[in-house]
């Protein structure tokens, strides 16, 4: 049930089942390949997520519910006590920083490789990904997956349920079932990847069956109010061809609608598309929308705020942002005050590991005591060292890598990407002080 009053204010509080969210900004799940080789989350991951605890909700990255579902190297898992212990460190750090967290459960299906999992991937049908898969040894041609037997389907459903129990034990408020972006559950939904002739294939009613069984089993395991589902209607990446998008999603949404789930999460949601409104009208609960921002390519200067507000106005309850959160640990504060955003450093997104491009994105920082807030910084910004990242919510002067106009104006997020002339504000204005850290 929707228990969140409608608003187009991203900073209005919301409820999500038993959770109180201080704002409507959700950090979208993002694979970053910083887990240990066996899938155990690392202390570095705890630091990364804790930095982003001011999000209304964090949905942690795709995490494998069983060994064969593993996609890529160094992605986290949640099917072993060591994984649970590792994730407990992460949720503990996020809770200590004031945050709330769900975990995304992802089985890769045909997106996997024996070099990553030691196993031949399983999929609805033996149709390989028409692409390479990244392995520790580099990109390798995808292998032909094994068609899942009825027993494989049963045990995979059970693995999702067990992983959800583990997630709750690890301290997550709930889990998100990943039925999007071309991974196993999506492979069942789509005609191009599901050629089965049994009850799990054929017409839409058959192709949604696996998704519904997984979600029901997970909901039975941990309670429906702790379960979200992510979908990506019309997604064509990862070799996907859904065939009958406009039939799949109404049927799937109807099948899930009565379960009392925490939320439905729509990827690349576009309020200009009729299907978005169809889904909104049929889904009685909380709808998280992930705006369709330029992909690939640089984010808009407002980080997606304008699109986010359009989606709220079109009926979404919460907005998830990916890359903007990745590059801005204090994204909520930046959007709230109209501060510029750190650009995404694409070369550090995935597969590379380490702190660079992960935990070293700067926060807004507070001016040194006694410094004149209306004076340029004494050294050119380019020479300023990267500062250690402070705890969330503490910072105030701008990231040296991004700056406003030389004359003191700043681009601020919002409809029409307005500019604000801060010279008209007095130097004592808090907003003014935020923008004067760098004038080169
Ligand atoms: C580095 C990276 C990793 C991602 N990994 C996942 C993932 O694990 N699960 C998922 O559902 N989507 C994943 N996504 C997609 C994001 O959740 C999000 O849908 C996408 O980035 C679009 O949102 P944005 O325009 O705000 O970045 C990933 C995106 C990026 C950039």
UniProtKB/TrEMBL annotation:
GO molecular function: FMN binding; oxidoreductase activity
Membrane-spanning ranges: none
Skewed-composition ranges (Basic residues): 420-434
Record flagged with keyword Transferase: no
EC numbers: 1.-.-.-
Claim: Transmembrane helix is one of the keywords in the record: no
Region (Disordered): 362-440
Pfam families referenced in this protein's UniProt entry, alphabetically: Oxidored_FMN (PF00724)
Basic and acidic residues: bias regions: 400-409
Listed CDD domains: OYE_like_FMN
Keyword line: Oxidoreductase
Database matches in InterPro entries: Aldolase_TIM, OxRdtase_FMN_N, Oye-like
Annotated Gene3D superfamilies: Aldolase class I (3.20.20.70)
Highest taxon of the lineage: Bacteria
Domain NADH:flavin oxidoreductase/NADH oxidase N-terminal positions: 9-341
Top EC category: oxidoreductase
UniProt xrefs under PANTHER family: NADH OXIDOREDUCTASE-RELATED (PTHR22893), NADPH DEHYDROGENASE 2-RELATED (PTHR22893:SF91)
Protein name as catalogued: N-ethylmaleimide reductase
Lineage: Bacteria, Bacillati, Actinomycetota, Actinomycetes, Streptosporangiales
């Amino acid at each position: 049930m929707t228990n969140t009053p409608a608003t187009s204010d991203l900073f209005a509080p919301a409820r999500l089942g038993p959770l109180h969210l201080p704002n409507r900004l959700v950090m979208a799940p993002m694979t970053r390949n910083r887990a240990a080789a066996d899938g155990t989350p690392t202390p570095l991951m705890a630091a990364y997520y804790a930095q982003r605890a001011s999000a209304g909700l964090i949905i942690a990255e795709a995490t494998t519910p069983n060994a064969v579902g593993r996609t890529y190297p160094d992605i986290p898992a949640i099917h072993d006590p060591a994984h649970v212990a590792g994730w407990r460190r992460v949720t503990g750090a996020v809770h200590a920083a004031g945050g709330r967290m769900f975990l995304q459960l992802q089985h890769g299906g045909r997106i996997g490789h024996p070099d990553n999992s030691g196993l031949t991937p399983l999929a609805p049908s033996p149709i390989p990904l028409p692409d390479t898969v990244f392995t520790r040894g580099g990109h390798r041609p995808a292998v032909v997956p094994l068609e899942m037997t009825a027993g494989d389907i049963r045990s995979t459903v059970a693995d999702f349920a067990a992983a959800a129990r583990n997630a709750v034990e690890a301290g997550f408020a709930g889990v998100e079932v990943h039925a999007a972006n071309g991974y196993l559950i999506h492979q069942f939904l789509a005609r191009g990847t599901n050629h089965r002739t049994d009850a799990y294939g054929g017409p839409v009613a058959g192709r949604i069956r696996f998704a519904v069984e997984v979600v029901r089993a997970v909901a039975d395991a941990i309670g429906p109010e702790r379960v979200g589902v992510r979908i990506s209607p019309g997604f064509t990446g990862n070799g996907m061809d859904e065939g009958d998008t406009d039939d799949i999603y109404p049927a799937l949404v109807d099948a899930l609608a009565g379960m009392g789930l925490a939320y439905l999460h729509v990827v690349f949601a576009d309020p200009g598309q009729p299907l978005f409104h169809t889904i909104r009208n049929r889904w009685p609960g909380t709808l998280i929308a992930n705006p369709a921002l330029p992909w690939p390519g640089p984010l808009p200067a407002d980080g997606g705020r304008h699109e986010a507000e359009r989606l709220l106005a079109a009926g979404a309850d919460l907005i998830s942002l990916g890359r903007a959160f990745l590059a801005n640990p204090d994204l909520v504060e930046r959007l709230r005050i109209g501060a510029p955003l750190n650009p995404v450093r694409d070369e550090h997104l995935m597969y590379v590991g380490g702190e660079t491009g992960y935990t070293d994105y700067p926060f807004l920082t507070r001016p040194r005591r006694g410094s004149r807030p209306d004076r340029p910084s004494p050294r050119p910004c380019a020479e300023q060292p990267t500062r250690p990242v402070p705890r969330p919510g503490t910072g105030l002067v701008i990231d040296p890598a991004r700056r406003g106009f030389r004359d003191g104006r700043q681009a601020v997020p919002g409809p029409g990407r307005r500019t604000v002339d801060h010279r008209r504000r007095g130097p004592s204005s808090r907003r003014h002080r935020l923008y004067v850290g760098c004038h080169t």
